[in-house]
Amino acid sequence: MTTDAAFDIVRRTLANGRLPHAYLLRGDPRGAAAELAARVASLLLCERRAADPAAAPCGACKSCRAVANGTHPDVVAVEPEKKSRVISIDAIRETFLPWASKLSYLGGWKVGEIFFADRLNDSSANAILKTLEEPPPDTLFLLATDRPGDLLPTIVSRCHRLDLSTGREAPAEPWRSRVGEILAKHSNASALRVAATAARLAALFDEIKGVAESQVSEKLAARRDADPAAALVDADAEKALVSVREKELRGAVYAALEDWYRDVLVLAALRESGAAPGGPGAPDLRFPERRAELEARAARTPARLAARYVEFAGKIREQIEARFIAPPVVFRHWLAWMR
Ligand SMILES: [Zn+2]
Question: What is the 58 CA–ligand 1 centroid distance (Å)?
Fold first, then answer.
C-alpha cells in the first residue's frame, strides 16, 4: 500500500482507541518506512491533536518540529552501528530499554523506532521481545525493515504489519491466491504428489508468459494509438519487454511461496512458545484466508524446519531466475523436502 494509505490506517486506529503496541513497517528504512515512522510519531505527539485531531500532524508546532529534527525527547530511534551493521545488545540495553521503561517527558505518547529491525542480533532481538510482550503504557514501537523474513517470528507475531509498496512490484493477485490454493493441496508424502504440485506451479509460469505477452502488446498498441508517429518497436525489443514483464510476474509467485512458509513458521513458533492462538499478539498472516490449513501444517512442522522451508523458497527463486534451471525440476527438487 502507499504511505498515505498506511498512515490513514494508523490514524483511524488511533481515533478508535485501538492503536496496537507495535507496527512492523515493511518498506525502505531510509525511504518510505522512515517517512511513515516520522508521520506517525508527529501524529501522536502533535500539540494540536487534542483540540483538532484532523489537523494533526500540523507540522508547525514545537512537537512536530522536534520530531522532524530528531530532537523530540519522547522519540527514540535505534539503527545498526556503521561498522558491524548490526543493532547490538549494548545499544538496546543502554539506550532503548531505559528509555522504554521511563515515563514520557511531556506526558503524552512515546514512540520507539527501530530502523533495519532485521539487523537485530539474537540477544538484542530477545531483549526487545520482552518489552514487546509487556509493553509500557502509551508507547508505540515502530519497527522498520525491508526484510521482514529475517526477523524472529516471535517479534513479527507481536507487531501489526503495514506493507508499503515500492511502486515497482508486480501485482500480487491473482498469483498469490493461486499459489495458496496449490500449496494448500501440497503433500510431500509421495513422489507423485510432489510432482503434481511442481507441475501446477510450473503451469502458473506458462500462464504468466501468456499474460505478459498480451499486457505488452496491449501497451504497445495503446502507445501507437496515442501517437501514430511514434517509432515502431521491433520484434526483438518487444520480446525483451515481455521477458521483463514475465520476470516481474514470476516475482509474485516466489513472494507468495515465501509468504506461505513464513506463515507456517510464524504459527509454528507461536505454538512452540505456548501462546494462546487468537490471543493478544495474534499473528498477522499473509494468507489469513487459509489459516486453518496453515495451522494444520504448523501443528506438524517444528519452527526450525519451517524456517528452512522459507530458505528453500528463496533457493527456488535463485535457481530459476539466476541459474536458469527449468522450473519443474527446481520445484520437484525442493518440494520433496517441504511439507
Ligand atoms: Zn503539530
Answer: 4
CB 88 within 8 A of CB 81: yes
pLDDT digits (tens, 9 = 90+) for 91-125: 899 989 999 988 888 889 999 999 999 999 989 99
Ligand 1 centroid – CA 17 distance (Å): 20
198 CB-near residues (< 8 Å, 6+ apart): 328, 331, 332, 335
pLDDT (tens digit, 9 = 90+) per residue, 139-165?
999 999 988 888 888 899 899 999 887
Q: Which grid cell sits at 85?
A: 551493521
Structural domains of the chain ordered from first start: 3-163 (3.40.50.300), 175-335 (no CATH)
CA neighbor of 40 nearest in space, from 127, 147, 112, 131: 112
CA 138 – ligand 1 centroid, Å: 18
Q: In this predicted structure, what is the pLDDT of residue 277?
A: 58
Spatial distance between the Cα atoms of 174 and 294, rounded to a whole number of angstroms: 19
